[in-house]
Amino acid sequence: MAARENDQPFVVVLAVDPSEHSEFTFKWYLKHIHQSGNQLHIVHVPEYWGDVARIMTPAKLHEMYEMTRRETDRLRQNYIEWSMQHGVQDAKFSSPHGHDAWHEIVKYAEKVGAGVIVIGSRGQGKLKRTFLVIGSRGQGKLKRTFLGSVSDSVLHHSHVPVVVCRNKDLEH
Fold this sequence. Notes:
Layout: E1 10-15, H1 20-32, E2 39-43, H2 58-85, E3 92-94, H3 101-111, E4 117-119, E5 125-127, E6 129-136, H4 141-147, H5 150-157, E7 162-166
Parallel strand pairs: 1-2, 1-6, 2-3, 6-7
Antiparallel strand pairs: 4-5
Helix pairs in contact: 3-5
């Protein structure tokens, strides 16, 4: 996946959550795919509390929002620090809010340039080279059907290539 000379670098959107699956996926990306010049965007969609807000007390809802904010801040700090330790100095971390994590991830990939035509100095158009990397928990078909799967939904709704990374040693 190395970029040829004069080509646009890859814009990589790496979706993470607080799980060890995401940590594995991040390390796997760095080891097997990352090239200098790639633009790494780490995206985490925080827990959505809107559906249960009506049944919680305001104090409990505030507590849940604060817990989610602290978790997001911890992830931001960890992934940016890990990126810098591996020589990725310009990694960006974003935490868009929304009901469906898969939708926010796909929307973010589009926002950072998926499928955008870049006009070069000679007036030639090129597609920005973007792809998504996401981890998978390795759930079976039945569990995925009832509980849903963010990686499955990203894979089916994304307009850019998706790399789904699964660590078979972490399957439950």
